[in-house]
Amino acid sequence: MAVIAFVSSKGGVGKTTSAAVVAGVLAETTKLPITIVDADPNQPLLKWSQLPGCQENITVIADEAETRIVDIIEDAEKTSRFVIVDLEGAATSRVSNAIAMSDLVVIPVQGSGLDADQAIKTIKLVLQAGKSLRRKIPYRVLFTRMPAAITSNNMKSIRGKLEAAEIPIMTSSIIEREAYKAIFLVGGTISQLDTKVSGKAMAIKNAEAVTTEILQLLVDIKTASEAA
Description:
Blueprint: E1 2-6, H1 15-30, E2 34-39, H2 44-49, E3 58-62, H3 69-79, E4 82-87, H4 93-101, E5 104-109, H5 113-133, E6 139-143, H6 153-164, H7 178-186, H8 200-227
Helix pairs in contact: 1-8, 4-5
């Protein structure tokens, strides 16, 4: 069992897209039960799950009360191999509690200075939660909505700023693809989309790369924990 939380203190950075993409790949490749906890007030993942094509091994639960997040995650852990938590873009007690329950926190960031600053604020939340638990909560920054071909000087500067602060960054990024937007319109996973959807093949490859890296991170985290 593993709890993966997608967290940012700022909205609109790609948390929901990242959560849906990773959940879809996990559901299709592992065939194991997946629970998504939708803690976004707009409930985008719950709405996505109600469209045609949702994988049978994906369950989406909406967390409508801030005080219930711990109980919801605990219950999901009993039935699912992976619990994916999509959190609201704010620094609330629900966010802090979900971070404390997580095996891995993924912090989506777009290529802007504002997003980088917000990522640092989110990392402070992770460190504070870990300090209160007297354990390190593993986290990684995930760049999202990245251009497919060209890396701007602005993006290089942001990455350099985070690296200088010794903030761990995922090797893979979520590339800007029409296929990622399409699943929220028609439902299902990327692989279920019509072949005419622009960039479908590349989106599948990209989604698999991100998910594979997350799975390897979870293995490394478990190995390090057992060796400690």
